Automatic annotation (TrEMBL):
<dbReference type="InterPro" id="IPR050682">
    <property type="entry name" value="ModA/WtpA"/>
</dbReference>
<protein>
    <submittedName>
        <fullName>ABC transporter, periplasmic ligand binding protein</fullName>
    </submittedName>
</protein>
<dbReference type="GO" id="GO:0015689">
    <property type="term" value="P:molybdate ion transport"/>
</dbReference>
<dbReference type="GO" id="GO:0030973">
    <property type="term" value="F:molybdate ion binding"/>
</dbReference>
<dbReference type="Pfam" id="PF13531">
    <property type="entry name" value="SBP_bac_11"/>
</dbReference>
């Protein structure tokens, strides 16, 4: 009994001493989405409750319950979507604060559509019918073929690849072949959910053959020098700024945006003979709740105002 009592006293004293010890607070990352410039486009945002790294949903914009117009958009131009929606609302003031849009990987959007437009993030489940869906032109064509979307599709955005790196390019990455060098850590978009992965692998093959593709997407992953992203438009710049990776192939518009908001990233251009272009298309959903607004949105995407937003970030209108 006395032995157990002495042990209990020892544990209490140890606990008290631990409580009195001042430990340095963990250093949070310098940035964490949502990034500067992003605001909730809801008519009434209610109680703000965003806690970085804990409760944080930067790719879901607005109030789905009160929305009168809904867009599911591929996430790699999320920064442009914010400005496009704002410009569209100026033309359609009756929709101000009544637009909900997602900016998530196109493969996830397709799965969401297959699951009755339902998606779960953490403990929150959303079911909302889109009026317009935007993704790579091949995926949009396939969804029209399945009867999920209505044709014809609208091709409205063209983008090209670049290598996103830390500001100053400390690893001295100059070519796509440099990505395979030992010690260069990479963020690789996941081929299962992110359409950009197809263009990336084609660009790597054009630059260094199938061997370069294997080194970047297989050898480095197995060696722990490459990590597959789930939302590359958020994770690649964040991992670079957190020091987890050194580089990642993205659309050129993404490092341009990060540089505009003052984040310490840069990019390495890819020569035309190795680069790849991606075309984004949009189509109206078969069961759109607001087909009139959907048609107005597609017309807006063809406007000079929309074109200027895209060009601001290095994107263009397809020919």
């Amino acid at each position: 009994m006395c032995k157990h009592f002495r042990l209990a006293v020892t544990l209490v004293l140890f606990a008290e001493s631990s409580m009195n010890t001042e430990y340095p607070a963990p250093t949070p990352p310098a940035v964490f989405p949502p990034w500067p410039g992003e605001t909730p486009p809801a008519a009434n945002p209610g109680v703000p409750f965003t806690v970085p790294e804990v409760d944080n949903m930067p790719d879901f914009h607005g109030n789905p319950a009160a929305a009168e117009f809904v867009v599911f958009a591929g996430g790699n131009y999320f920064f442009a979507m914010t400005e496009l929606v704002e410009a569209f609302q100026r033309q359609k003031p009756e929709l101000r604060g009544r637009i909900f849009f997602e900016t998530i990987p196109p493969g996830i959007i397709e799965r969401q559509l297959e699951n009755r437009n339902t998606i779960t993030v953490g403990n929150l489940t959303l079911s909302v019918q889109p009026d317009v869906v935007q993704a790579g032109e091949q995926r949009i064509a396939a969804l029209i073929e399945k009867g999920v979307l209505q044709g014809p599709p609208l091709r409205f955005l063209k983008n090209s690849l670049a290598v996103m790196v830390k500001k100053g390019n400390p690893k001295n990455i100059r070519t796509l072949e440099d990505l395979a060098k030992p010690g260069v850590r990479l963020a690789n978009p996941n081929p299962e959910t992110e359409g950009i992965a197809r263009q990336i692998q084609t660009a790597l093959e054009q630059a260094g053959g199938e061997e370069l593709v294997r080194k970047v997407y297989e050898t480095k992953v197995k060696a722990g020098e490459a990590f597959l992203t789930e939302i590359h438009h958020r994770q690649t710049p964040l991992w670079i700024m957190q020091g987890k990776v050194d580089a990642g192939l993205t659309w050129i518009s993404e490092p341009r945006y990060q540089m505009m908001v003052g984040h310490p990233v840069d990019f390495v251009p890819i020569p035309p003979e190795h680069n790849r272009e991606g075309i984004q298309a949009a189509a109206i959903a078969r069961n759109a709740r607001n087909p009139g607004a959907a048609r107005d949105w597609l017309a807006f995407l063809c406007s000079n105002e929309a074109k200027s937003v895209l060009e601001k970030f290095g994107m263009a209108r397809p020919q």
